[in-house]
Design brief:
This protein is α+β, with helices and mostly antiparallel strands. 27% of the residues lie in helices and 28% in strands. The protein is globular. It binds one RNA strand of 77 nucleotides through strand 14, strand 16, helix 13 and helix 14.
Length: 569
RNA sequence: CGGGGUGUAGCGCAGCCUGGUAGCGCAUCGGCUUUGGGAGCCGAGGGCCGGAGGUUCGAAUCCUCUCACCCCGACCA
């Protein structure tokens, strides 16, 4: 492709609105342009990269036995009412009506559509197992789209749906997809990690997320430094520490102390000169409309997913301040377990505190030297908090947990009969009995992979594409397009490389050398080849890897063979 | 959704406080010179100052409303 005839609007300056590296570089390198909040046009170069990812995904899906289809982006609301998600899905679902006032949505996912297809077309167990996938534009009306392509509202996604007669069949389908995902991310040249993920309210089923490791990732993942245990923060657990025998310790008498104006755990700790880990943090949450007081060590973070699971409700939320005050009889900030009428649930770590501080359920007052059982009954226990780095691994004897930042690029999920039940996806089994199918779903953020790859592969000068995703293998710089000899040699090399099947971007623009070098670095093709100037006078071309230290000189006559070899063709 | 910020030429910004009809750098176009890491000089084009309403002789500037975009938060009370 010729640079001079392609829209590659590189930017010299950093766009002020772009916060993360991938967003900045995608704009600067002319891969994308914004149209609105969280929606982007893919320009020629960016589209080439997107297509590379798509091709890898498609190949591996096909190899894994999945069948490609393309479902409508616009879906009837009726179908979503049938599955019950029309009410559940909330504002992320972009809804609209057609001219007949019928309700529609722009598909954020396609469980309903594929289920509808399968219930109409698949009648017999002999047609199973089946796995259908598509690569489609989705729209999710995110509360706050940000970070460019990383978290846009409109994005390109591969989604696959497997259908099996039973759970054993689903297990096979799931493992097949899991393996295909590992190959996909390996081929994309990404450092990634598969982690156990929370399954939310569906229950029973298992789920894994695939994260590209990057400091800018929005998600926290936890992994063991010894074994292969890895989970996302919502799901991750640590091995519980031994609980001390709290009854044996001599604790001073419990005492009510004034803590005027001390609102946070840190402030109370400093004011009373107690370490935060010996203050019990009391959090009022709403679980299925009921108030529950959750107790955590002062230095720990509440994990709301774990809390919901422990309470057996779909989710817990933080109540409105007025409502909370009504329930607790006191403003939040002074809550505590002593004498509370509320249901109390404590993190399993909390009983280890033999002598602690907690709120006194009166504004501006706390208790100190509280002891379990002596002063307050020990409440029900559960794992309620996020793990922290350095804790012991729940799976192996010696491992310690580490925390990393990750970008979620893939998610595999055993759905079970959640949709097949509500939508009536059934076939006849070998006995002639009707069976509800067991489903799995498998997503990959195709466009997000492009951004994630840049997060992982860049330097001060621009993108450093992994070979498999690069828009071109070679950036061929025609240093002086007014020098007929150089042009002739460069054009010939360009033609020969194309003929050999190598993807080349020929920078034939009438620009100064410096501009071409800067743009080549920004665009990040794996190899940069210079034809012209000093080396050309000696019959040489220069070859430099994007991530290499210095250029190598190759005789013009050998350039083609060398480049074909280096480009891996 | 709550809070904060910004909207002026393709991009980055100044001008606004203290009203007088718009400017700088880069980019673009023409010319000359230059030519190995984002060139120099000369010249040119391009903006109903996000939109609507109001105040005023006069509004980019003051007031009201509105829209868009960005940031922070939406578990630590």
């Amino acid at each position: 492709m010729r640079f001079s005839q392609t829209l590659i609007p590189t930017l010299r300056e950093d766009p002020v609105d772009a916060q993360v590296v991938s967003h900045r570089l995608m704009l600067r390198a002319g891969l994308i342009r914004p149209l609105g909040a969280g929606i982007y046009t893919w320009l020629p170069l960016g589209l080439r990269v997107l297509r590379k990812v798509e091709a890898i995904v498609r190949q591996e899906m096909d190899n894994a036995g999945a069948q490609e289809v393309l479902m409508p982006a616009v879906q009837p609301g009726e179908l979503w009412q049938e599955s019950g998600r029309w009410e559940q899905y909330g504002k992320e679902l972009l809804r609209f009506v057609d001219r007949h006032d019928r309700q529609f949505c722009f598909g954020p996912t396609h469980e309903e559509v594929i289920s509808d297809l399968v219930r109409r077309e698949i009648r017999s167990y002999r047609q199973l197992p089946a796995n259908f996938y598509q690569i489609q534009t989705k729209f999710r009306d995110e509360i706050r789209p940000r970070f460019g392509i990383m978290r846009g509202r409109e994005f390109l996604m591969k989604d696959a749906y497997s259908f099996d007669l039973d759970w054993a069949g689903l297990e096979v389908s799931y493992q097949t997809m899991f393996a295909a995902y590992q190959r996909i991310f390996q081929r994309c040249g990404l450092a990634f990690r598969a982690v156990e993920a929370d399954t939310g309210s569906i229950g029973g089923a298992s789920s894994h997320e695939f994260h590209v490791l990057a400091d800018s990732g929005e998600d926290v993942i936890v992994s063991c430094d010894q074994c292969d245990y890895a989970a996302n923060l919502e799901k991750a657990v640590s091995r519980p520490a031994e609980i001390a025998d709290t009854g044996a310790v001599a604790v001073p008498a419990v005492e009510r102390v004034a803590t005027p104006g001390q609102k946070s755990i840190e402030a109370v700790g400093q004011f009373l000169r107690w370490p935060v880990e010996r203050i019990v943090k009391s959090l009022l949450v709403e679980a299925a409309g009921e108030p529950v007081l959750l107790l955590l060590r002062g230095d720990r973070e509440l994990n709301m997913v774990k809390a919901a699971a422990a309470l057996g409700v779909p989710q817990v939320t933080i109540p409105e301040p007025e409502r909370a005050a009504q329930w607790a009889g006191v403003a939040m900030g002074s809550l505590g377990p002593l004498g509370t009428p509320l249901r109390v649930l404590a993190d399993r770590e909390v009983p280890a505190l033999a002598d602690f501080v907690c709120g006194a359920n009166t504004e501006g007052w706390h208790w100190q030297h509280v002891q379990w059982e002596r002063d307050v009954p020990l409440p029900a226990l559960a794992d309620l908090r996020n793990v922290v780095a350095g804790e012991p691994c729940p799976r192996c004897a010696t491992g310690r947990l580490q925390r990393h930042q990750g970008i979620e690029v893939g998610h595999v999920f055993k759905l079970g009969d959640k949709y097949s039940q509500s939508l009536g996806v059934r076939v006849l089994d070998s006995q002639g009995l009707e069976q509800t199918l067991v489903m799995g779903c498998y997503g990959i953020g195709v466009s997000r992979i492009v951004a994630a790859a840049i997060e992982q592969h860049h330097d001060q000068n621009g993108i450093c594409w992994p070979v498999a995703l690069a828009p071109f293998q070679i950036a061929l710089l025609l240093l002086n397009p007014r020098e007929p000899g150089e042009v002739e040699a460069g054009e010939a090399l360009y033609r020969d490389l194309l003929a050999a099947g190598v993807e080349v971007l020929l920078d034939d623009r009438d620009e100064r050398a410096g501009v071409k070098f800067k743009d080549a670095d920004l665009l990040g093709c794996p190899l940069r080849v210079v034809v012209g100037g000093r080396s050309f006078k000696e019959g040489m071309v220069e070859v430099q890897a994007r991530t290499g230290e210095r250029a190598e000189r190759v005789p013009l006559a050998e350039a083609l063979a060398t480049l074909v070899r280096l480009a891996g063709r």
